[in-house]
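worker-3 :: picked VOC family protein
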Amino acid sequence: MPSRLNPYISFDGNARQAMEFYKEVFGGTLRMNTYGEFGEKEAGDAADKIMHSMLETDSGFTLMGADIPPGMAYKPGNNLSVSVSGDDAAALRGYWDKLSGDGTVTVPLEKQMWGDVFGMCTDRFGITWLVNISEQPA
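worker-3 :: tokens ->
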């Protein structure tokens, strides 16, 4: 298997809901495992929380996520964003509509100075998404 780069997002107890939402947006196969399933003895109340999840889509996207481990502090920041780009305008606009629907649009999805259609939003889980639709050569 070749090396691959994909985002891994930490959540504060709502990883299951977030990853199920991303599956609704992008489709694909979602696998989730809880701390309890892995026999985490210290899990306690976190036994049903997500220790690891992976969404793999037919488009070749991979997104991983988990709830923070028991005893570890959740430190949200602005150092994570996820970029989705390509030239399938219909699919990308569909992703945009779902991601921004209950979120906050910071850059409207529109033609930019570099020629592509681009937008940026923060979804309802606090994750920043960048969507770039490449223009087809004339």
